[in-house]
């Protein structure tokens, strides 16, 4: 029984790695185009405003790359487990996870997509054992299996899985609302941790909604903590690839450059590939680092006056020095944790892949 669990876990780990490897080009395309476009923008109350039409188009191309990122992740996780019949359902369900759906309008982001990718893979794997007539067998991989899989897991997600997630989101908003008058350090820790825990997913968006609501009331410090924290995960994993090269494949090292630029413009999703491949080490590290950065920012009264993050918004930050210091310390905390928890690659050949 224990051996079977180990086999399944290794199969899931392999699936996550496969999903990440197919997702990487989409992350790079999206990140590079968004970085170039946003770098030409002007900070406003509604975020970075891009006025040049060519840069607007480039921004749209980058957004398309990011929109494809999560569906590709889920689709190829499912594909790794069950082959070609699982690819389309996995991508469809990954898209569903990354967009609001149902009466509760819940979005679960990359965590939901990973779960649906695994469920899709094993559901399709189970359908391969069905005894069907020879005339039906040819239709199974291209018609019957994709339709049944998408329907069953889609309904399960919309009516079962997403409902408790929506309830958790409401609970978190209530908790955060009650904390706004409390300890600045505690609030900064919570906002920073929530920012990093799912990197652009529903928990991150809950923190965003909370800080935006306070901005509307003229309170900008929580937004400062949040905007510090959004940059820390990609900056941390990027820095780790620069200084701990023996812990990463050549592919990861190249991706670290892209993650670095994403961190500078406040795109947290640049850390997702690293977290997916080594969740038990990378995810706690970036959560702790973001929490530390957010807490330092709150404690020192840093205020971000626009709903964006990273160093790109420095001109519209009150407390510029502490904004940079908080981001630096949070990043270094994550880097140190990764350094001492993540082992070197066993096979030196993996470094040159």
UniProtKB/TrEMBL annotation:
| Location of the protein in the cell | Cell inner membrane
**What GO molecular functions are on record for this protein?**
carbohydrate:proton symporter activity; protein-N(PI)-phosphohistidine-sugar phosphotransferase activity; protein-phosphocysteine-sugar phosphotransferase activity
Q: Which GO terms describe its cellular component?
A: plasma membrane
Q: Which residues form the PTS EIIC type-2 domain?
A: 12-351
Q: What residue ranges are annotated as transmembrane?
A: 20-41, 61-79, 110-126, 138-159, 179-197, 255-276, 282-300, 321-341
Cited InterPro entries = Bacterial_PTS_Sugar_Transport, PTS_EIIC, PTS_EIIC_2, PTS_IIC_fruc
Question: What Pfam family is a match for this entry?
Answer: PTS_EIIC
**Keywords for the protein's UniProt record, in alphabetical order:** Cell membrane, Membrane, Phosphotransferase system, Sugar transport, Transmembrane, Transmembrane helix, Transport
Keyword presence, Transmembrane: yes
Whether Transport counts among this entry's keywords is: yes
Look up and give the membrane topology term: Multi-pass membrane protein
What biological-process terms (Gene Ontology) are attached?
phosphoenolpyruvate-dependent sugar phosphotransferase system
- NCBIfam families cross-referenced by the UniProt entry: PTS_IIC_fructo
**PANTHER family the record matches:** FRUCTOSE-LIKE PERMEASE, FRUCTOSE-LIKE PTS SYSTEM EIIBC COMPONENT-RELATED
Name of the molecule in the record: PTS system transporter protein
Organism expressing this protein natively:
Streptococcus merionis
- UniProt lists the gene as manP_6
């Amino acid at each position: 029984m224990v051996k079977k669990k180990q086999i399944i876990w290794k199969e899931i780990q392999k699936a996550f790695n496969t999903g990440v490897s197919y997702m990487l080009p989409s992350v790079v395309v999206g990140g590079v185009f968004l970085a170039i476009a946003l770098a030409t923008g002007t900070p406003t109350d509604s975020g970075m405003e891009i006025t040049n039409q060519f840069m607007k188009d480039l921004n749209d191309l980058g957004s398309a790359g990011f929109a494809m990122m999560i569906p590709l992740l889920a689709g190829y996780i499912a594909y790794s487990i069950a082959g070609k019949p699982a690819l389309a359902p996995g991508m469809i369900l990954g898209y569903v996870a990354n967009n609001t759906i149902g009466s509760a309008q819940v979005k679960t982001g990359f965590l939901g997509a990973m779960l649906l990718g695994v469920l899709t893979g094993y559901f399709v794997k189970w359908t391969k054992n069905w005894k069907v007539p020879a005339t039906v067998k040819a239709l199974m991989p291209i018609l019957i299996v994709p339709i049944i899989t998408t329907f069953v897991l889609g309904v399960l997600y919309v009516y079962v899985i997403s409902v408790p997630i929506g309830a958790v989101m409401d609970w978190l908003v209530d908790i955060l609302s009650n904390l706004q008058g409390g300890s600045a350090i505690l609030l900064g820790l919570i906002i920073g941790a929530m920012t990093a825990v799912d990197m652009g997913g529903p928990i991150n968006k809950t923190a965003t909604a909370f800080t935006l609501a306070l901005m509307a009331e003229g309170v900008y410090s929580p937004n400062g903590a949040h905007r510090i924290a959004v940059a820390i995960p990609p900056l941390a994993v990027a820095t780790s690839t620069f200084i701990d090269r023996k812990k990463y494949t050549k592919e990861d090292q190249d991706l670290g450059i892209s993650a670095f630029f994403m961190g500078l413009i406040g795109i947290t999703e640049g850390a997702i590939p690293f977290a997916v491949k080594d969740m038990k080490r990378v995810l706690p590290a970036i959560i702790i680092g973001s929490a530390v950065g957010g807490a330092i920012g709150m404690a020192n009264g840093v205020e971000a006056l626009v709903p964006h993050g990273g160093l790109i918004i420095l001109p519209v930050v009150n407390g510029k020095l502490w904004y940079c210091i908080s981001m630096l310390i949070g990043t270094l905390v994550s880097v140190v944790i990764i350094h001492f928890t993540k082992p070197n690659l066993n096979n030196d050949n993996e470094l040159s892949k």
